[in-house]
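Need residues for this backbone.
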């Protein structure tokens, strides 16, 4: 793609936007442009009427992802004015600092700290904490370790079972099952449900026969494309 994935000016030109557009304007224009360049919108004459539309759709999708990532990092879209600097009220000049304590006060503080440490060593020596019953320590360590290990093992098993029970998009799934799993689509058109750049298609009986899960808005429980018959039988 000419200009690389950061050629945001080309993205604005494709979507008919100015560089200072808002994030909502970018989203609406992107969805509208995707619907115009989508293969199912122009039927069998897609290649003849709009040559290179597939490559343009791929480029726009990549640029749109880069623009939204830029917005998450900087709080604005590329080409928009940066927000004004934050002003902290009641802040003095930079050169003003707190006065340092006098040297005599620092020496007095160190002297008092040494006196406190000396009293602590005399009345509560640290080695007194080690005078514990060795049998009690052995018994506590013996009973604590197996219980902790058992608790971690049970949590791991629960997490594994939860992942195994998660719904998975598969070929032959009914429309009702897809609706319960993926939610209401953005649009429906002749056996095809659109979820932004992702989509799911159905056969005449209303069962899933193909899908595409985009990285910009991935489908729930789905690979990027359905596995081929050869891949499905692999161990």
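Answer:
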């Amino acid at each position: 793609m000419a200009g690389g994935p950061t050629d945001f000016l080309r993205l604005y030109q494709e979507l008919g936007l100015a560089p200072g557009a808002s994030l909502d304007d970018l989203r609406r224009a992107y969805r509208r442009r995707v619907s115009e360049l989508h293969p199912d919108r122009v039927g069998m004459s897609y290649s003849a009427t709009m040559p290179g539309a597939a490559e343009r759709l791929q480029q726009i999708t990549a640029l749109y992802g880069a623009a939204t990532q830029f917005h998450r990092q900087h709080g604005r879209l590329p080409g928009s004015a940066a927000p004004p600097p934050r002003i902290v009220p009641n802040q003095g000049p930079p050169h003003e600092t707190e006065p340092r304590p006098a040297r005599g006060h620092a020496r007095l503080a160190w002297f008092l700290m040494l006196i406190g440490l000396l009293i602590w060593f005399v009345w509560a020596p640290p080695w007194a904490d080690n005078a514990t019953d060795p049998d009690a320590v052995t018994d506590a360590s013996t009973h604590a370790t197996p219980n902790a290990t058992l608790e971690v093992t049970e949590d791991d098993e629960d997490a594994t079972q939860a992942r195994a029970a998660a719904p998975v998009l598969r070929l032959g799934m009914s429309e009702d099952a897809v609706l319960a799993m993926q939610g209401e689509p953005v649009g429906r058109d002749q056996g095809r449900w659109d979820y932004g750049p992702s989509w799911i298609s159905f056969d005449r009986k209303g069962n899933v026969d193909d899908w595409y899960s985009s990285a910009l808005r991935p489908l729930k429980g789905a690979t990027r494309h359905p596995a081929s018959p050869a891949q499905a039988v692999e161990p």
